[in-house]
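Quick one:
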Amino acid sequence: MTESGVTRLRGEGLTLAYDQRTITRDLDVTIPDNSFTVIIGPNACGKSTLLRALSRMLRPSTGTVLLDGDDIHRRPAKQVARILGLLPQSSIAPDGITVAELVSRGRYPHQGLLRQWSPDDERVVAESMRATGVQELADRLVDELSGGQRQRVWIAMALAQETPLLLLDEPTTYLDIAHQIEILDLCAHLHEEQGRTMVAVLHDLNHAARYATHLIAMRDGELVAAGQPREIVTAELVERVFGLPCRVIEDPETGAPLVIPAARRRRPGAPALAAGALAFPA
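Output:
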């Protein structure tokens, strides 16, 4: 929380719309400070729309997004960009730009007429590339990189903004499973080691349950549940949100909830799990 005791980022009574089509109506949402919050839900339920509103990219039809207690749209754009960073769903780098040049663009909110590029900017860019493991790619063209490498570079640029709040819209989309885990491990490190408040939209419920400290579950533009994964991820919730019959067990690696979709039919000879193993952990 801020010194005044106000949660840094929240939305009150949000009605969000695109092209006169209402996506959410009268939605209240709070992002706990110092959390790794993940927003989950089926396609077209309003996850990315909510993230765009929280990041000041979409103005609510009604309601208010509050950043440190103030309407985010009444604050200067550069001021907001020094507090809140955003990694959009589709990020396209300019042609011919190197990794170091792209990461350096994260320092834009700190520039001004009386403050140009400085040794401090150079230090932050170097630290951001080092934190994301892309320092050896500094002179490479972004267009030449793999999907996982590009995602790390974009996260490095967001880190270079030096914002305490970082929002990521589907950061693992189009990545294979190894690179998905790599990116989520990096996000968890940024949250745990650097104390950043992270907010991400994810499609994979098991990834969300494993990495999040706080989950927001949405369906049809409404908030269905919010809380710690251990508290809210149940078979009933998964079926209500995704329409998916399932069992929820304890992840043997992390102890987090693990969703096992119901099979159409059991394969001949497949062992049945003991009933006790399928119970959601207390």
